[in-house]
Amino acid sequence: MAVTGGLAVTAETDYDSFITVPATSASASVQAGLVIGDGLWSAMIQGGQSYQASTAFTTEWYRYRGFYSLNLAAGPRLRFRYLDAYLLGGGMLARYDLSFSYFFFPYLEPGYCLPIINLGDHFTIELGLAAPVYLRADSFSAGLRAVATVSYNEDKTQFLWAGKNR
Amino acid sequence: MKWLRFVALASMVILVLSACAIPEEPTRTALVFGVATYREGIIGYPNLSLTDDDAEDMATMLKAQSWDVSEAIANTNDPSLNSVASKAAIKNAITDLQSTNAGLVLFYYSGHGFEYGNESFLCPYGSITTGNQLLLDQMISKNELYAWFENAGIEDVVIILDSCNSGGFVEAGATIDSIPPVFGKYDETGEYYITDGAVAYSWFVDSLTDTVKSFISYSNSSPFVVISAAGAGEASWEGGNNGIFTAAILASQEKTSTADCDGNGYIDTTELFIFCAEAINAGWNTRGTIPTSNWDVFFPHLSGTAREYALWATK
């Protein structure tokens, strides 16, 4: 289970004749994931829900609309000593705030996480960063999010740098 | 590491402040058109009763909100005066913006609308003959209206239409508009209509197939934000002092607690849409007197653009 929070930058990509101004907004998500395999390489699948708030207004008095979304993604995960890096690819089903407009877009999310606290024999709290890139049909969003994860490991797991198990 | 903490904190504060604050108002130009008289000297169809009031009240409200307003209303027995709201006059008004610093442009129209061959049209003055025949070449299509703005080089455009069949002017863009072109439907007995919040999807994920298809087939769309009173297959009604839709627009700056959803002190296009939609659905579509036909029910539509515009401050 993971909770994320961060920033996203959005700009329209659709209107050749118009200059569009990138604008920033806050974003957050709650995700549930499964990691299969415990070797150097493993596979990861993750689904959840996200919210990207509307951006700040530009000087022309427009802003990019906020939206709620459901997402599902999968991809490889690689362990470098203490740090797990991953690259997810998937899709988001979204709905603009206060509207009846639904839309879909693929996204990529590279990220990493580092176990920092042991909770018993099987649970670990991990912290990391993710950089989702939303490939929307009429615009482009990229963000940076802090990720806090509570993970359950089937095998007894202790990360020595993450504190003693009591 | 103190400096790092300071930078992070300062960045957060700047971000929060910048997200909340709205920049100084840009140049804003409103073109307001109302067509009440289509044929001089007669009462009733094709003339309308309240579209001139709609335009006047919208112009008054926009002026009070510091918009630079140009209004043209057909409501006299003089054809030369009424022609200020003809197709040619509307086109000229938009084209003339090219030579000005128009900034954000709001185009408002209240009058008849029409659907022909799966295409929606506005019916300006001069588009209905003395025999009540509709003149297609005197009506305004979506493509014509959009092209006039594009040719004038106007980038920031909000179009608000209080007319029948106006949903045909709304582009879903990269989205699926889940409000159908005809919102109401009859109940099982066929005796009464019901409004069942008849959006296309009961569950969020129901939209997956349609939205994926939409993503794959998407090529481009207009950045113009359009709010229509009704769907492409619906009538838009008037009653009381204004059109039902325009009355909701005017009420939006009064009912700040419900209209200004994000509480930033400004009504934006999305907030205006949802406020009007809820007001019409609660106050008209489900009013006490059961309408006798499906024809009575209507529901506004909003463009599927990624952007939204701030329109006016709440009182």
Order of SSEs of chain B = HEHEHHEEEEHEEEEHEEEHHEHEE
- What is the N-to-C succession of helices and strands of chain A? EEEEEEEEEE
How many DSSP H or I helices of chain B? 9
Give the termini separation of chain A.
22 Å
Main sheet summary of chain A: 9 strands, antiparallel
When the domains of chain A are counted, the total is 1
- Shape annotation of chain B: globular
Measured on Cα atoms, how large is the radius of gyration of chain B?
Answer: 21 Å
Percent strand of chain B equals 15-25%
Uncertain ranges of chain A: none
Instruction: Summarize the largest interface: chains and residue counts.
Output: A-B, 43 and 54 residues
Topology:
The complex is a heterodimer of chains A (166) and B (315).
Chain A: E1 2-12, E2 23-36, E3 41-52, E4 62-64, E5 67-80, E6 83-96, E7 101-119, E8 123-130, E9 133-135, E10 139-152
Antiparallel strand pairs in A: 1-2, 1-10, 2-3, 3-5, 5-6, 6-7, 7-8, 7-9, 8-10, 9-10
Chain B: H1 2-20, E1 28-35, H2 51-64, E2 68-74, H3 79-82, H4 87-95, E3 104-110, E4 112-116, E5 119-123, E6 140-141, H5 142-151, E7 157-162, E8 176-177, E9 185-186, E10 193-194, H6 208-217, E11 225-228, E12 238-239, E13 242-243, H7 244-252, H8 256-259, E14 266-268, H9 269-285, E15 301-302, E16 307-313
How would you characterize this protein structure?
- The complex is a heterodimer of chains A (166) and B (315).
- With 166 residues, chain A is mainly β.
- Chain A has a single domain (2-162), classed as Porin (Beta Barrel), CATH 2.40.160.
- Chain A has strands at 2-12, 23-36, 41-52, 62-64, 67-80, 83-96, 101-119, 123-130, 133-135, 139-152.
- In chain A, a hairpin with a 2-residue loop joins strand 5 (67-80) and strand 6 (83-96).
- Chain A is elongated and about 55 Å long.
- Chain A starts with a strand and ends in a 14-residue tail after the last strand.
- The model of chain A has no long low-confidence stretch (mean pLDDT 86).
- With 315 residues, chain B is an alpha/beta fold.
- Chain B has a single domain, classed as Rossmann fold.
- Chain B contains nine helices and 16 strands.
- Chain B has helices at residues 2-20, 51-64, 79-82, 87-95, 142-151, 208-217, 244-252, 256-259, 269-285; strands spanning 28-35, 68-74, 104-110, 112-116, 119-123, 140-141, 157-162, 176-177, 185-186, 193-194, 225-228, 238-239, 242-243, 266-268, 301-302, 307-313.
- In chain B, helix 2 (51-64) packs parallel to helix 7.
- Chain B starts with a helix and ends with a strand.
- Residues 6-18 of chain B have low confidence and may be disordered.
- At the A-B interface, strand 1, strand 2, strand 4, strand 6 and strand 7 of A face helix 1, strand 8, helix 6, helix 9 and strand 16 of B.
